[in-house]
Each structure stands twice: as structure tokens, then as C-alpha cells.
Amino acid sequence: MSSSYVVLARRWRPRTFATLVGQGHVTQALAHALSTGRVPHAFLFSGIRGVGKTTLARLLAMCLDCEQGVSAEPCGHCISCREIVAGNHPDVFEIDAASRTKVEQMREVLDMVGYAPAVSRYKIYILDEVHMLSNQSFNALLKTLEEPPAHVKFIFATTEPRKIPATILSRCQRYDLKRVPRDLLTAHLNAVLKSEQVPFDPLGVEAVVRSAEGSVRDALSLLDQVIAHGAGEVRFEAVAELLGLTDPESIVRLLEHVLRGRGPEVLQGAAQFYNNGVEPESLVKELLDATHRATQQKLLGRLPTAVPVAEPATLSPLDGLVEEISLEHFQMVYQVLLRGSQDLRIADDALQALEMLLLRVAYLKPVPSLEKLLSSLPGDHTHMSVGRHANQPSPPNVPSVPESVPESVPEPPVIPRQQLTSWQQLVSFAAGTDSGLAAKLERMVCCPLYEAGPDGRPSRIVLRLENDIYTPDNFKQLLNSFLVEQGVRGVQVTVEAVSDAPKPETLAETALRSQKDRQLQLMEKVSSHPVVQKLIACFQAEIVRVEPLVAALGSSLDKGVLR
Questions:
Q1: Claim to verify: residue 18 and residue 119 sit in the same structural domain
Q2: What pTM, to 2 d.p., does this model score?
């Protein structure tokens, strides 16, 4: 009985366009072409392995040679359809291009093109992995592919469309098949398991879907293996043991130790995973995935809807850290883990390399803001260059524009805790201690009322939210916690919800307006400068724009560059 078993990937191979998972953009286009009779003589299906390229080629052959007529819905019961499914149709030739790369073999195929079909409407050539053909084979195919007989159709499938000559690509209608999204693949596997009457849990299916990386065939093949390994069931424990995965809670706990800089706990957790048979590369991959999801939650205030339902629960222990850790630090952690995962492959001692990588991440210093870094540089940062980089010498016989043209912006003063007499001073003080909170105060709220006591400390603050990412209570708690940490107590904080009522500008809006005003003033000064006017007259030039020299880095320093 075991010898007659058909694996899930074959048993669940689609027989109609409607059952092909995740490729609706392709099946819809093909259905319209078939229904209107605008069927080209050559198709090219490209995409990663296991997304349906060969299956789609066979379905298209069924649509073209079905005894009921050309349509987007072949009957599937006639002799022609059954023979195409079985792979023994006399007029449908499925050729593995990887094993027939020589030009002599391609000429043998092309010699048969001129003969009429034996029993069907079209003679169809399906060339799988067509990019493996040699250059001579492609050249031999060119003329026939451009003007084939009316009874011949070519269908190419490839995972590497960039390796196909442009002369071939230009003679085909190309359809790119996408990776199947996780939610669609999860729903498909759930339907398969229910139909097969196999018990399963959502976490186990989710782990299979993540390992498949968008490939339906890989997911079904792995599902077959998991069912056998789990004695007829799909459970997360069996999937984790088979693939060397970790449970989500342990990963989040380890990431929490890493982000909080707990070196001993990090070493203990890494050793525990390694002793349980988890491969270091797999562990780092799970940490990267958790860091990515935490960053999404930090940026959006929630996990995106595309994340499977089972995943948000795995981030619950990190909810507090998501608020505390800055977005820049999350990105730095991700970058170090990503680079370090490449070093694990060449290390002689995998556990040793893993421990050093995690300790390197655990003791990363928080990333300071760019404005703070620039303000710490010595010297005058105000400089201007005409048509060149600031560090390059001036061209001969052309005087440099005096450095007095752009006006420097004074550095914001360091505000003592006792002198927080305005909303601007409070936000500036927060920028030196908590850049993440300062960014929220600048962009997410405006301040209609700010009162300070005789001691220079705030006594009453009224804020209004700009969006609904935070609730008034949550933002109030956020600001109160910061003030208490800095020793400022007894402040009456009121946070109002989003409304259409008139409101003052946020600090970010004020800074943007000020920057635009400075840009206009700088443009006027540069335009009226004698050297610039002389250049414009000599070369019939025009000033396109005047921008800060480090605008691309987000600095507010006026380093004017004339382009």
C-alpha cells in the first residue's frame, strides 16, 4: 500500500485556473485571452520554484486542446484532458530543457514543428527550465519562435528569466508568478489538512508556511514529511523538532534579554537552544524575524494585518520594549544580526560564534540622533560651494562664493531641568535623554497650553493628538512617566483626542515652515550675489535649487549648495 501512495504535492495539483493558489493576476489575464481568442504563439512563465509554472503550462495546454473547444474552463474529462494530466498526450511535448541543452537536441525538436498535430487542435511544446539551453540552442529556436506554424504553441517555464536572451523574451508573452502570501498559503494548507482529515494546530501550520517561503509545492512536501514525523498529526512540536525551530515565546524571551543588555541570560539562552539541537543560523533567523515584527509594531503602533493571526501573541512580552527601544536601535540590532549570520557559516565553533554575536548585539550603545552627532563636531559647519562638492577646490579663475552668504542656525541651548518654561524647551530637553519620546512630542501632538511655575518647571500642559496611533490616556501616561523619571512631579497633564477644531502647529510643522522660510531667504541671497550673477550671465545658467549640504542625512544645519 505504501508504494501506491501519492504525495500531497501531486494529489493536490490544480486542475483548473480557479484552484491555482495566489496567481489570480496571471489566470485572469489568460482567461481573458482564451475567451477573446487573442492567444499568442509563445508564453513565458517565470517565478520561484513551486508556485505553479509547470502546472499552469499544463492547464493552458488543456484549455487549448480540450475536445469541448478552446476556453478558460477545460472539461477535464475528455481523452485529451486526461492524457495531458497523465503526461502522455501525443501532441503535448513536455521537455526538460536542463537535460536537452545541446543544439542538436533542439534541432530534433524543431524538425517536428512543421508536422500537423496527430489528434488535437494544437501541437504544444512545454520547455521547463528553458534558461538552461545553450546559446546555440536559443539561436536555433529564434526563427521558429518568431513565426511558427499556426498549429504550434510554445510554453516556456523558468526560475531565471534574466538568463534568457532578450531576443527570446521579445518573442514571448511573459507572465511573472509571485510568491504565495502567507495568509493564502495558510488557508490552503488548512483546507488540505481538513480534507485529508489530519489533526493540526495553527502554530504548526504557521511554521510550515514560514519555512516554505511562498512556495506551494515546498509547503505541501514539508507537510507530508511533518505528518509522517508526527504520527499522522501536524503539531508545532513535531515541526520544530523536524526543522530545528524554536517556540515563539522562547525566541521573544531571548530577544528581550538581548535588547536589555543582559549578558549572562543571553549566554544561558544561547547554550540552551544549542543543546536542544537548534542550529545557530536558524536561531538568528528567528531573532531577525522577531526584530522585524517588533520594528513594524514600533513604526505602525500595531502589527500589520498581513501577519498571520497566530503571530501577534508572540510579541506580547516585547510590548513594553517596543515603546522603550528607539527605531534606530532596532534597525542597528537587525543589521548586526544580519551581518553576523553570514559569519556563522564560516566559524569553526558555531556556538562560540553565536554567543559572541549575541553579546555584540546585547552591548550595542543606543544610537544617538544625527543632530546630536553633528552638533558635537568642532568648527564652523557653514560652507557653500558653487557647482561642486564642498571639499573640492574651486575651479581656476572662478572666485568662490563668500562663506558669509548662508546664515548659520544657532545650536539649541542645553536646558537645565529647572528651566523648562516652554514646550519647546521641554521637547529639546527630552531629545537629549529619550530621542524616541522627543520624536513623538514633535510630530504626534500640538501644545495649545503650557504653564510653568516660579521654579521654571511645568505646572500644567494641555496637548492635542494629531492622529489616532495613541489614545489620550496612553500618551498621557507616556509623558507623565518621562517627567517623573526626570524628577518633575505634580504636573497637570491633559491630552485631548484628535478633532477638527483649530489648533496650533506641532513642533515638526513649525520647523518645516521655518526651514522653507530659510530656504527662500537663502535663494534670494544666492541669486543676488555678484559671483552667481556673473556665472549665470557667462554660461546662460539658472539656479535649480539651493539646498542644505547634508539635507539627505536629515540635518537642519544650513550648508548651502548651489546646483
A1: yes
A2: 0.56
